[in-house]
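User: For my dataset I need records formatted as: sequence, then structure tokens, nothing else. Please produce one.
Assistant:
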Amino acid sequence: MESFRPRIIFSAAITLDGKLATRTGDSKLSSNKDKIRVYALRSKVDAILIGKILLKLMIHFYPYIILRKNPIRIILDSTATINTNSRILKTCSKIPTIIVVSKKAQKKTYIN
């Protein structure tokens, strides 16, 4: 019997000191060619994992990223502080979304 293991693709554009963008949110760490490559990868996966900070950047700079299929969205938000009015939460009934929080998140901020 063959066992199936998840295949993981890690793609990141970060500075040597681990930054994703400047304080103003400006990010010119990847080229347009690389962005096209990343979008092509995203169209082939079952799920995409991002952190809350990247989510904020994506909403600000790329609000209408459209993929042919909608992979499961997995968002790391240790403090459960994603804006409840955000488009990502408003569309979670159409696109499966998992929000991962830590024990330090207060129960009253959990999203149902």
